[in-house]
Design goal:
3-stranded antiparallel beta sheet, DNA/RNA_pol_sf, extended, RVT_2, alpha+beta, Copia protein
Length: 162
């Protein structure tokens, strides 16, 4: 171990950190443990399918949090639940709140009828350009345009997959 850049006392000594230092590889793990504990204290449970998804259900209403390092999305079946959660979040963390338009390279459009459209046009264009395919003839998407997802009527499978 060596002294961090900018530390100039000439002694060569190092210090024991009492908390995580921004930029270290373990910083994100420390942050995640802290935030996960905060969510657990508020009654959230991490999803078994994806540990970045936290779910809280009260009185039949759901509040979902998806977290990627220090970026997150909140969605709820009840607007007041999400507003209360944001207030609780602000008591412990410095956050910015607003309608999301881009998250993990997903472009998200909000519509007046309370629906959303999610696409990855920019990243697809970037990949096509990277491999010299930007002038290729486009083909239909593998999913029908304007497809409305419905709750499944079939029983969940016991086959574990991700």
């Amino acid at each position: 171990m060596k002294q961090p850049e900018g530390f100039k006392d000439g002694s060569g000594r190092v210090c024991k950190l009492k908390r995580s230092l921004y930029g270290l590889k373990q910083t994100t793990r420390c942050w995640n443990k802290c935030f996960a504990q905060f969510l657990t204290d508020l009654g959230f449970k991490a999803s078994e399918a994806d540990p970045c998804l936290y779910i809280r259900e009260r009185k039949g209403r759901k509040l979902l949090i998806v977290l990627y390092i220090d970026d997150g999305l909140i969605t709820a079946t009840n607007q007041q639940d999400s507003e209360m959660f944001i207030k609780e979040l602000k008591t412990k963390f410095k956050i910015s709140v607003g309608k999301v338009s881009c998250f993990l390279r997903l472009e998200i459009e909000h519509h007046k009828d309370n629906s959303i459209t999610i696409n990855q046009k920019r990243i697809c264009q970037k990949i096509l350009k990277c491999f010299g395919f930007e002038e290729c003839k486009p083909v239909a998407t593998p999913m029908l345009k304007d497809c409305r997802l419905q709750k499944s009527e079939t029983k969940n499978s016991d086959v574990p997959y991700r």
